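FORM 7B - TANDEM STRUCTURE REPORT

SECTION 1: FIRST PROTEIN
SEQUENCE AND TOKENS:
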Amino acid sequence: MSSLPLVIVFSPWWAAIGAPLANHLWQSTLFAAAAGLLTLLLRRNHAKARYWLWFTASAKFLIPFSLLVSMGSHLGWSKVPGTTPPGLFLMLQGIGQPFAPASQSYPTVPAPTNGLALITRALPTLLLVAWLSGFAAVLFFWLSRVRRMAAATRGAVPMQSGREFDTLRCLERQAGLANPVGLIISKSALEPGILGIFRQILVVPSGISDRLTLAQLEAILAHELCHVLRRDNLAAALHMLVEALFWFHPLVWWLGARLVDERERACDEDVLRRGSDPQVYAESILKVCEFYLESPLFCAAGVTGSNLKKRIEVIMLHRTPVNLSFGRKLVLSSVGFIAVAVPFVFGLLHATQTRAQSQPLDKGETAAVFESVSIHEDKTASGMFGFGWFSSETFTANGATLQQLIREAYGVEDDQILGGPDWVRTGRYDIKAKMAGGVADELRKLNTDEGEFAYLHTLQPLLADRFKLALHHETRQVPAYVLVVAENGPKLQEAKPGDTYPNGMKDLDGHGHGDIMRFGRGLLTGQGISIRQLVKGLSKQHLDRLVVDNTGLKGKYDFTLQWTPDVSGSAGPSLFQALEEQLGLKLEPRESPVEVLVIDNIEKPSEN
């Protein structure tokens, strides 16, 4: 079962859902840890400063950094493209998305057994069911408490006079509250509390003024009015949403406890600041606890929440909190700015890099590779159809389509080229381009693998200049065949370095070296061939979709593969069976995350 994590990480559902969610949880956890460190720095300051830090950490779970990255990337597209330092971009990408799925390169992942394949297919459904179950349980928990609260306040009547009413209106005038808070009397045994999020109402139990002195009643109502002024019920409701969505993360429940602690302490500090006597205020809280029950709802702010013993001790000590100094304000502002700016700048840099990749090159860059280029559209399709070939200094193509040219220039397959008009795939061109002398000399110094790669990539500036090709890269889920090592494989014969194959296949110059692969009907022969070359050949010649190498085999091999072409009623192995039986490799059809090229602009060239 040791291969299960790798199979999961490189499965399509992980690329689509798992990796983004893992990134979001990792970033939100780190953000909360940073907020916790800042609260230690502010432990002698006002509780409301620490409260808003904890609330920001909670709200971060609802705001993924990817949203800021997206905003930056959209802004980046409207700016003049520039050159992004690759080191900086890769560093930001690695920090921001440590769980990013693979795109262009495919790591070695063992072929899943039947059991692993079953688990991989079932895991997304199982995880979704588990999350929905937890989400429903949390909602049921909160709804049951809402029903309890509704039952307790059923039959409550508005109050328009009396000591509670007069005291509340007096406190509202002192606080400068424009809209008066509704006041209702409940026959329940619940403590005084604020109900509602946007239209807030103060619920007080009947007979409370008989149990509290006027000074104690003023202190209790002043505390509740602080909750109104601070909009604590709205903040609590938002955190309840966080708890419902991320119920599986212990940190969100710990954040909830911190929010209640600092919320109540902030209100305590405000009540004392407005002139209430600490001993009277502490006695009023204890009397409420003696006669009444705590509110069952997190978003129905009362007076008895948090650690009561610790709150009473702090109230009685009545230490005046220290105002935030300029230095600490600067630290908080800087941290907030960095938290927003870093993902935003990352999106801006990513868009700039993508935009720069998508811009057509100017003629000076093309001239640095080719000293002359001749292009004619083959309107009669009289030329020999095909991509083309390189000689030592010349590239020649007869009847080549733009899709063929793009495919070879960027080392991709047809399924990885998206967008563009229909003539990209149907129009054919005859091209003859002569390389600049210095470029040809440098290319001749390269070995076979490096030379093939470099020669083909010289076509990129030609396409950008003469066809005004502009494109960008994306990672998408596309149907593909994934080539893996079969259960009884591999069965490949490794090529020996320096083997000149005197009796083997010969190239056009009559040499019998490696890197030669020949295709026939139901026959594929390789001589010193890498798996990358085999995959490319299978994609081009014999299969109707992209083939992705997931074997992890890095050597070069000699092989002969024989199969029976798809003919009705024919006997013999299919290509899929032959690969498994003769080479010990297996093709698995599945959707896979693949880097694709999206054509943003392309134009027909002027002939010369």
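SECTION 2: SECOND PROTEIN
SEQUENCE AND TOKENS:
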Amino acid sequence: MSLNRIIYSGFIGGVLLLVTAFVVKGQNVNVFGCAHPYDWQLFMNPNAFDAVNNQGGKVLFIHLTSGDDGNGVNNKQYLAKEEGIKRGIRHMSNAFGSGSGIGSEMNHELIVVNNHSVDRYQYRNAIIYTLRLPTAKENGEGYEMHQFKSIQKLFNGENQELATIDNKSTYNGVDDLKTTLSEIIARETTDNDLLIYHLIDDDENENPTIHSDRLYTTKLFKEVAEASKFYLLNLYKSVSSKTEEANVQGTKLLNSFGAWGATCSGVSDSLFASDWNPENNSLIERQYYRTANPKGIDNENIALNKTTFSSSFETNSESKKAVDGDINSWWGANPHGEWWMVDLEDTYEVSRINLVNYFQSQRVYRYYIEASLDKENWQKIIDYSKNENTSTSAGATFHLDNEKCRYLKVTMTYHSQNVGVHINEFRAFGKKVNDTQVAISEQKTSIQLYPNPVKKGENLYVIAGNNKNSIIEIYSLTGSCVYQRVIEEETPVVNISLQTIRKGVYIFFIRENGRRKRELLIIK
């Protein structure tokens, strides 16, 4: 686990303020769990294309069965489909911007995972695993070639073992298979990555006529996913989507057909029927899925198309381009030290930030990120000023402890190639804070607290004029309300006992008639 410890310091009212925060760094990893070699092409595109290209980050394509249709290794149909998979993924990778020039060679390894041999291929950020388990019939009955065994029967305990079609490995029970999948994912990820699983929907009311292999592949991956710290599930309709209206259009449709065409060429070049036919092609025009969020992960980009500012910008690289949703445009300025800021336009508890710098030509960027509720008082929440990693289309992702803010500002401190600084995309994720929870408003009317700093256990006196029916609240710097009181009497001085409030730095405010008066409170 990567953990950055950040200390903010400064003098407020003659008192040295030290606030410690913890930021956990992770990445987004898309995991496509496929029963058959064609599942992601037919049902999960254009999301697969976007995962490889627009969103960046590592992408895993894990294929459980070989698609052998009961033929085993005899006619090498499984190798033709694997060639199709590889061509489809290479096509998607090379269709991205200036992504070209590494040819058809893929980094191939035969690795051992949980004592099982598994083929692993890598092409840029896309990684392919093929387990080569036997394909079953739609009802879960296996083929005679494989002693009628299947994933469904292994999952339900009807079969105690399931061998790969090339007999290089045998899985002894469903737990053995689940452990292998878990170790594959653990090999490619960290505990703090956000894992986005793409699976065929196993709800037969949402996705009727689901193939047995697809149903039980999803059941397996769901159980594997439960061990993840941060994860989401995208659940796709399979062949049942053909009854829905076509909903993939324009460039996304072209991208999806491109990957499907490349897949089919790999099969046909190996002298098998390409599966390019009207029924399959109609599925390319449709992508229907729902998102499940078992752990309540914030997944809406709250910075998208919001108001932005910057200290300066280069021609055609205005600040708004960092939140336009296009990873191929950017805010640019120079020299080092320039800043960029977004107004989220409401107060949010921010749980995650993803920042993508310009990612061609092995560039290293450094920066720090600050947060504010009022655009005047800032706290450093992320310090990336010692970064040594080159930028990628995945960017850098940081998990936060629900940082309460409205404004986020990035100060760029370094670029390894020249004095220019660039942000291709800035993404923030979190939940909007109810107005009654906002700890600090933009209202600047002063109040008097005496004494301040005050010793724990002593009384605090609030001098704020006539404050009948106003509300007093004290918030920690993390946004937790530690004291609340309605002033019912008309009095110029309010007496507050601090017996139950811990030592620390707090925000004190009075709310009256919809307006807030605020002050910093220090309890020693």
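SECTION 3: OBSERVATIONS ON SECOND PROTEIN
The chain has three domains: 26-292, 299-433, 448-523.
Confidence is low (pLDDT under 50) at residues 1-22, 436-445.

SECTION 4: SIGNATURE
Preparer initials: ____
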